[in-house]
Known about the structure:
The chain is an alpha/beta fold. The protein contains 7 helices and 10 strands.
Amino acid sequence: MKLIIIGxxxxxxxxxxxxxxxxxxxxxVDTNMERVESYKDKLSHTICLDATDExxxxxxxxxxxxxxxxxxGENEGSNIMATANFKNRKxxxxxxxxxxxxxxxxxxAIGVDQIIRPEEESAERWTKKxxxxxxxxxxxxxxxxxxxxxxxxxxxxxxxxxEIQFKKKYNILVMTVIKNKQETSFLGQFKIVPQVQxxxxxxxx
Length: 205
């Protein structure tokens, strides 16, 4: 996948670095030359450019890009201007970061494909992890549904899905089971590797 990230602050740079590590082609854009230089070896490409300048966008390969992410967080005005510029260019998929509810309303009005609020999303995940016993991680789909990773309660270990009846008794749909397996690295050191077991059946224990 080819994507352009506008804004190489903490969130944008971290996202770009991780996406590059997964094999995606990432172009990182920022007005700060120091940031551009510091990430040139961590991203596929970096460009010093002002995305609020519509003419400057001609330097970007927008026609060959799958996704544009506006991750500017410290300046709402620049975020909105950059988002509007890319919306005018009709890029394939436009995602923008919002700082507050008013900012989010403006982005909705512009018509972005998706809005992200990393601080709020991170706070929600940590709230669940800190307040609910056994939760490893969580992702909130909406106010009613979440995807969560939990440690199996001891009283369920050794029972089959048919015996437990997750859906009937608890209104929980189990997507998969993850088991930790010990492997040996090429240096002879032991490490724990999580292995996804696939979709469980009624006989899965």
